[in-house]
Write a structure and sequence with these properties.
Elements (H helix, E strand, L loop, with lengths): L3 E5 L3 H13 L4 E5 L3 E5 L6 E5 L15 E4 L3 H13 L3 E9 L4 E7 L5 E7 L6
Parallel strand pairs: 1-4, 5-8
Antiparallel strand pairs: 2-3, 3-4, 6-7, 7-8
Length: 128
């Protein structure tokens, strides 16, 4: 259902360095690049994420309650990507680990511009 998500950034070059390294952990690479936006993904036919300078020319700000969730296959992937984000300068918003007894395993962080992201997996099938 989701085609892509964009996150507003104030320094596109700095964001690109962060996301190039972070998304390499997920097997993604740059799939589109223009003067004001860079998008990453595995292919143009799968959902992607873009870092963009706002169209109106005003500073990018963080959306309160806005978060992008990135799915992986297993807890070790969550741990690895979360750790990489923190190494790259992301701010911890909740360390990697299980959340409740639902089989939801996640780590939360904010990128260099303050955008909130979550890396997660399900460790057990969702109940109907």
């Amino acid at each position: 259902m989701i085609g892509y998500v964009t996150l507003g950034v104030n320094d596109l070059e700095r964001a690109a360095k962060f996301y190039d390294q972070l998304f390499a952990e997920l097997g993604a690479k740059r799939i589109m690049e223009m003067d004001t936006v860079i998008a990453w993904g595995r292919s143009m036919s799968e959902p992607g994420l873009g870092a963009i300078k706002p169209f109106d020319g005003k500073p990018a700000t963080v959306g309160n309650g806005t978060m992008v969730a990135l799915a992986v296959k297993e807890p070790a992937d969550v741990d690895r990507v979360y750790k990489k984000a923190i190494e790259l300068g992301a701010k911890d918003e909740g360390p990697a680990g299980p959340r409740g007894d639902t089989g939801f395993y996640a780590g939360y962080f904010r990128d260099l511009d303050g955008n909130k992201l979550n890396i997660f997996c399900m460790t057990q099938p969702a109940s109907a």
